[in-house]
Amino acid sequence: MHATLSDVLLADGARERVTADCQALVEQELAAKSGVSAGALKVAYKVVTAFAPGYYRSTVDKLVPKMLEQLQPFWTDFHTAGGGSFGDYLAKRGDEVSEALLAVTDDLAQGSPRGAVVKAYQAVRSGAGKHIEAALPAVGVLVEKYAA
What we know:
Elements: H1 14-32, H2 36-50, H3 55-81, H4 86-92, H5 94-110, H6 115-147
């Protein structure tokens, strides 16, 4: 087991694998969504992924270390509490965890010079917490895959 979640990325090739798995998780979550809010998410995703070749992947790559830092206190508490799955632990603290993760994307959006991407993000930001909460069990599985 790694001392911290950030240590996960230090293993040879781990950052690329984690980034690819995070991209796959986002795509899986989007595919499972339907309705009006899903439509807005899918449009925003299309804007970001179509913006420039490699932009989405490089953005996810930048977000992963910061998101692992945000998840670290939850990971530490999870291990202190002992037992269960990290995904279940995160889901029980959904609002708190989603806000911690959204702080990362909010910060990125605030500093972005890419108006189209910022506009797409702002269009979905108000409902993003509930979508993140729904994905937390899968986020926990992904973290455990690399951190255990």
